[in-house]
Write a structure and sequence with these properties.
Number of strands: 8
Number of helices: 39
Strand content: 5-15%
Strand order of the largest sheet: 1-2-3-4-5-6-7-8
Structural class: mainly alpha
Radius of gyration: 28 Å
Length: 888
């Protein structure tokens, strides 16, 4: 009988659960342990259909005093967190299982499997090599306003994962295995005794430091490891490996640069974020090159190298000693800048990555020439590839601001230039704005540049915009990546940023990236890009390359997930056509969130299901807060995540999906409109919905928890429109209705089925990757939803006059599930994914009690806020987030 490959996961979860139980007995007492065990038994019975157990569970939890309720919620939250750690480690274990077994087929999406399949599909070696060399995948890290877990606990979770990995070794002695278990006991005890609640709201600088931890702990090593694996796989199928300094994967960041709606991200924060990244890069290089210097003790070298070091007896060490000294000086220089010291930049510090790369290349050439290529292709090769990927900046910071803020700044500038207080730029139509901006750009912005010498006379909002450009101009080369414009709609939105950066003296200028977010903006994206590329000055400026960003979060909040998915698909088609017509190479930047309601989902499937021609060896994607840890927190998972991005981009370029049939597109148009109408009827047109939302979910209370630096709203409004997409999704995830991911879908599918289109929908699901992936992701969310739990929130929190809203929403959820199952042909949700089905079923009895406690805590909190209740609510928020495996 074939062994169950997932049995080790169940063993790990069982072990960690047992250790947690022992920890509860020891640290909280036998009574607390027994209370938790009683709740667990009742929750399992309730999930199996026992009405008596359900009623007993609710009675017991709602009667608990706050401290006891907090302890119960913490216990279940800790178990769910431990189960998450075990699942993450199991992903690494399964990858190693594939790699160890020579008789098994390679893992789906691996380099070996993908390259072999591409060759089998008829892709030539020439095309394969050429496309691999063109790959440019950039992952952009962003802060997460609903990142619920403290950094201290994240690090502790990683230690548990490392102990589980050590326990997998088959050569451990009994004493060593006991040590592993004891280590797990210590870590679980430490985790229990650690405060999981943040008592102060994190600052943008805190978030910058958290983001950099991912590079220090995993990505620094994962990048060269990934490229080595690609090198081997490419050599096996194409007889030619990866170029020495290939950089198919790179990293950007919004943390400390994204000021859209976050008043706490100032020009000073942006400057410090860039300096911190440069400091960490210098520190990591110093450590690595010191280790390389210790290895390269050889005394024979090429004439080129010997001449360079004056015939030193250990030439490689002599050369690298100078590199280490310059890196140490670079760190010291940056430290002084961070401390606020005013000084001239030290000439011997590293400011350009070519200065760092050249001595490493010299060592590489020398080793190859001396017949020591095996040495050159060790740590030294990894270093060269790190320099190509990370440069001296480690990660390039994007800047982001809303289009209206730039217009306000230029309006103020125009008034200063004209010497009048009357509005000027703000009143101009698009053609007049473009004429003014192009005129300034063509003459080098000489008039405007004078105003950047001092911004003190401008009002604060304008001064903030102008000072951001001034800081950008002062930063070392390549510290910054792109300038992203939120709510972009017109060519003047892009030209305005071009004028401001030229006037500020940013050289080389940042590439300017319009972001299309709302449904209306997505519908006009193709035309807007065409008009932008028709501007002669701009066409010359971009040198044949254009980047466009698509927003998945606000488009879904605007029109619902199904409508947003289709509008995004159509927008990509239109943008591809516009760029091709202008002879411009397009890079699409996908602003995806972690949850399905914000465009999240499996990487490989998401990339491959894009419209034909939208992925041409280049791709940019955001990775947000919790997903940074989920995808890059453990070394093995980080390598797998990078591999999946590269193979998906490669496959989407060389084997793009065929265009859907026109009839399918027509039906998708109809369903998108039906879905949007149904969604907006509920969310924006129902007078009672907003009141229900604020009563039934913890949306109001979440804004007061210390789980992110950015305000939950863009302005002072109270409606759904002003609420950011992330807390919008987060609030519904907490109550497990998951509304943003499915509302409107049932109406769309139901209307198509009623019109006799079921057979067509079923064929679309089987044969159209975009449609299949869209429905599969919605199905996953429906499987996680729990209408019974949502009803519990309604009973405790919703006024009687609003109760009908919740009843109607749960009926829509039921109808959506039925319609989706009819199209997919599944008898139960996610039956095609038994691992996920089991994970959800195992988690439900542990999440349910936390939800019941949270509903009770919210009820008491609304009767009178106390620090004790706020802390208990935070514990519940963390626990539900852990159980649902995502937040916003």
């Amino acid at each position: 009988m074939t062994p169950d490959p997932h049995q080790p996961l169940r063993d790990d979860v069982r072990l960690l659960g047992s250790i947690l139980g022992d920890t509860l007995r020891q640290l909280e007492g036998k009574e607390a342990f027994q209370a938790v065990e009683c709740v667990r038994a009742l929750a399992k019975g309730a999930r199996q259909g026992s009405v008596e157990d359900q009623e007993a569970l609710e009675r017991q939890l709602t009667a608990l005093p706050v401290p006891a309720a907090r302890t119960v919620a913490r216990a279940f939250a800790h178990f769910l967190t431990l189960a998450n750690i075990a699942e993450q480690h199991h992903r690494v274990r399964r990858r190693r299982d594939y790699q160890r077994n020579p008789d098994a087929p390679p893992q789906r999406g691996s380099f070996e499997e993908t390259l072999g399949r591409l060759r089998a599909a008829g892709v030539s070696i020439t095309d394969l090599n050429e496309t691999v060399r063109r790959l440019e995948v950039e992952l952009v890290l962003t802060a997460h306003p609903t990142e619920a877990v403290r950094r201290t606990l994240r690090q502790q979770h990683h230690r548990i994962a490392r102990l589980l990995a050590r326990g997998d070794r088959t050569d451990l002695t009994p004493a060593e295995r006991d040590d592993v278990v004891e280590g797990l006991r210590r870590e679980v005890a430490v985790g229990w005794e650690t405060d999981e609640v943040r008592h102060e709201r994190p600052t943008p600088l805190d978030e910058v430091k958290w983001g950099l931890v991912a590079f220090e702990q995993t990505l620094w090593d994962a990048v060269p490891q990934t490229l080595r694996t690609l090198d081997r796989a490419l050599g096996d199928v194409a007889d030619d490996g990866l170029p020495v300094e290939a950089a198919p994967i790179r990293f950007g960041s919004w943390i400390g640069g994204d000021r859209d709606g976050n008043p706490f991200v100032t020009p000073a924060i942006t400057r410090e974020a860039c300096l911190l990244a440069r400091w960490m890069a210098a520190d990591l290089y110093h450590e690595e090159i010191s280790a390389l210097r210790a290895e390269l003790s050889m005394r024979h070298a090429s004439t080129e190298l010997m001449d360079h070091v004056g015939g030193a007896p250990e030439p490689y060490r002599a050369l690298l000693r100078g590199v280490c000294e310059r890196l140490a000086l670079t760190r010291e220089t940056i430290e002084r800048e961070l401390d606020g010291e005013v000084h001239d930049a030290h000439a011997d510090a590293y400011w350009d990555r070519e200065d760092l790369a050249e001595p490493l290349r010299l060592c590489f050439r020398s080793l190859e020439e001396m017949g020591a290529g095996v040495v050159a292709r060790g740590r030294l090769l990894d270093l060269l590839r790190r320099v190509a990927c990370f440069g001296l900046t480690l990660v390039r910071l994007d800047l982001r601001q809303e289009a209206t803020r730039h217009a306000e700044a230029i309006d103020a500038i125009c008034r200063r230039l004209e010497g009048t207080s009357e509005p000027s730029y703000a009143d101009w139509d698009e053609s007049v704005r473009q004429a003014f901006l192009c005129g300034q750009l063509e003459n080098g912005c000489r008039d405007v540049a004078v105003l950047f010498a001092s911004t003190d006379e401008f009002e604060e909002p304008v001064r903030d915009v102008l000072d951001t450009f001034r800081v950008a101009a002062s930063l070392p080369s390549r510290s910054l990546g792109a300038y992203v414009i939120s709510m972009a709609a017109q060519p003047s939105d892009v030209l305005a940023v071009e004028m401001l950066q030229m006037a500020a003296g940013i050289d080389p200028p940042l590439r300017v990236v319009p972001l299309f977010e709302t449904v209306d903006d997505l519908r006009g994206a193709g035309e807007s890009v065409s008009r932008l590329l028709a501007v002669a000055w701009y066409r010359n400026r971009i040198a044949g390359r254009q980047e466009i960003m698509l927003g998945y979060s606000d488009s879904a909040k605007d029109g619902g997930r199904l409508a947003a998915s289709w509008e995004l698909y159509r927008a990509q088609e239109a943008i591809v056509i516009a760029c091709r017509a202008a002879g411009v190479h397009l890079t699409l930047f996908h602003g995806r969130g972690g949850s399905v309601g914000r465009g999240g989902g499996p990487t490989h499937l998401a990339v491959k299901s894009q419209p034909p021609g939208s992925v041409d060896a280049t791709l940019r994607v955001t990775e947000q807060g919790e997903m940074i840890d989920a995808k890059f927190g453990l070394p093995g998972i980080a390598v797998r995540s990078l591999e999946l991005y590269l193979t998906a981009t490669l496959e989407a370029t060389l084997l793009p999906v065929t265009s859907p049939e026109p009839a399918w597109c027509a039906l998708a148009d109809e369903m998108a409109q039906a879905s949007r109408d149904a969604y907006r009827h509920v969310v924006y047109e129902s007078r009672e919905f907003l009141e229900y939302f604020r009563a039934a979910t913890p949306e109001r209370e979440l804004a007061h928890l210390n789980i992110g630096s950015r305000p939950a709203r863009r302005d002072g409004g109270t409606g759904v429109g002003s609420l950011r997409a992330i807390p919008w999704v987060f609030a519904w995830t907490q109550t497990r209705l998951m509304l943003p991911a499915w509302l409107g879908v049932g109406a769309a599918l139901g209307s198509a089925i009623d019109a006799g289109q079921l057979a067509t929908l079923q064929r679309m699901y089987r044969e159209w990757p975009f449609f299949q992936s869209t429905l599969d992701l919605i199905e996953m969310v429906l499987a996680k939803a729990s209408p019974d739990i949502t009803a519990r929130y309604d009973e405790r929190l919703v006024p009687q006059e609003l109760a009908s809203v919740g009843v109607e929403l749960r009926e829509r959820l039921r109808h959506t599930t039925e319609a989706l199952l009819a199209v997919t042909g599944h008898t139960t949700l996610v039956e095609h994914n038994p691992v996920l089905r089991r994970s959800i079923d195992v988690r439900n009895p542990y999440v349910d009690p936390i939800n019941i406690v949270q509903a009770e805590i919210l009820c008491r909190l609304r009767a009178g806020e106390t620090p004790e209740l706020i802390e208990a609510l935070s514990v519940c928020v963390n626990g539900i987030a852990a159980g649902m495996r995502n937040t916003g």
